[in-house]
Amino acid sequence: MSGGQRHTEPVDVHLILRRESAAGPQVLLSRRAGQVYAAGLWHLPSGHLDGPHEDVVAALVREAREETGVVIDPADVRAAVTVHHRSPGGASRTGYFFEVRRWQGTARIAEPDVCDAMDWAALDALPTGMVAYCRAGLDAYSAGARLAVHFQLPGDAIAFDSGTDRLRIVPDVTGRAFASCPDAAIVEFAERVVGRITEWTDASWARENSRVWRAQGIQGGTWYVKVHQNDKFHGREVRGLRTWAPALGAAAPRLVAADEKLMAVVLTAVPGRPLHGAVLAADRQRAVFHRIGALARRIHQSSPARPAPAGSGPAVAKADRHLAGARPHLNAGDEEFVRKLVRQAEDLQPLEWVETHGDFQLRNILYTPDAADEADDPDVFVAVIDLERSEPGPVVRDLVRLSDAWVGRPDLFEAFLAGYGRSLTAAEEARLVIDAALDSVSGIAYGAAHGDAELVERGQRTLARLRAKHDATLSSKEQPGAH
C-alpha cells in the first residue's frame, strides 16, 4: 500500500424515471440552467449524498422529490448500473443509476433556478446536447450492463460527442449481454462505422470457422459483423459484396465497411429466415423455387459471361486427397464411380464463367414472409447471404448444393428453371453430376475429420442418388468398343 492520503471522491445518484409508450420506453430528462455545471445540457434528475448518514436509495428518493416533485417508495427503486466517471477536468466520481417505474405525482420543474426544461425522451432516440456522463450511464443501462467506466480526457467536451465516446462496459461474472461479444478490436471497428452497439448475439453457423454476430445499435439499427477464417474467404466475400451483390438490391446484404487486417466486415441486415428446415405447402415451395431461380439468374447475369480460363475444369486434382479422407466412409463402388466421373471430365468442353455465389443452398437463402405458407398472398421474396465462397465459375457451380433440395421433387427443379429462364445444356448437366460427386466426397472427408455425422450422411446420400441415375451409363461408356 502506497503512503500518503487515501483517494476519496464524491458519490452521486441518478434517476432513470421510466415509462412505456406506444413508440417504446421513455425516460425523464431535465435541462440544466443557471450557475451550475453543464448549463444548457440535458441530464437525468440527479444529486449528491448529503453526508455519511444518507444511503444511496434515500438520496435518490430525496433528490427526485426536490427536483421533479414526484414521490417514490424506496421499495420501487431498482439498481440499474454503476458508472465510474472522470470529467475532462480530471475529477472523478462514482455514480449510481437507479430505475424507477412506479411513483406518485406528475413530474414538473421543482427547482427553476437550476432547471429550465423537463421532458420525456425516447430511450432509443436521446436528444443531442446531453451531458456525456449522463449519456454514458443511459447507454450502459440500455446495454444491460451493471458496471461501466467513463473516464474522459483533457480537452473532451462536457457534452456527449460520439466521436470521443469514452464509455467502457465492464462485463459481470455471468458475461450478461456480452457473453458472445467479439474481441475489443472487432467491437471498435464495428462501432467506428455504425455507432454504439448495445447487444451482440452470436449467429455463427455451427460448421464454419468464420464467426458472425448480430449487432444491435443504440438507436435501434441492426447489422451483422463477420470475421472470416482466412484471407481467401475475406477477399471472396468483399469482392462479391462490391461487384454482383449491389445488383440484387434488398435481396443481398450491403457492405458497410471492411477491414483487411482484421478480416472483418460489417453488413446490413437482410429480411427473412433461412429456408433450411422450413416446412411449406407444395404450391408455396414451387413459388419459392421459382424466385430462387430468378435470384440465381440475377447473380449470373450481373456481369457479362466470359470464356473459362485455361485449366479451369472440375476440381479433379483434389479428388485423390478427398477420396483418401472419405474412403473409410464410402460404400462399395463409390470410389470407382467417382474415378469414372473424373476420367469423363477430361473430355468435357469448358463452360463459360459467370459470377457465382459459390455456396448456394437453403441455409444461405432467406425467405419472407415467415407465414407466407399460410397466407393467400402469392408474392414471395427471397434473398441470399454468406458470400465468402463467391467467385467466378460456371452456372452449375450454384446448383451443386442446391440440387439436394429438389431430390424426389422434379416440380421444384422445374420451378427453379422456370424462374431461371432456361434449361441446362447437356454439357452443364454432365458438369453438374461431376461437381456434385466431387463436392460430396469433399463433404464426407470434412465431416469425418470434424466429427460431423450429418455432413457425412448427406454426402453418402448424394453419391447413392448419383450412382442410381448415372452409374450404368458410365459403365457402358467405358466398355471396350463403346461409342
From TrEMBL:
Residues 6-147 form the Nudix hydrolase domain. Its cofactor is Mg(2+). Signal peptide: none annotated. It comes from the Bacteria. InterPro entries: Aminoglycoside_PTrfase (IPR002575), Kinase-like_dom_sf (IPR011009), NUDIX_hydrolase-like_dom_sf (IPR015797), NUDIX_hydrolase_dom (IPR000086). Pfam families: APH, NUDIX. Keywords: Hydrolase. The keyword rRNA processing does not apply. This is Phosphotransferase.
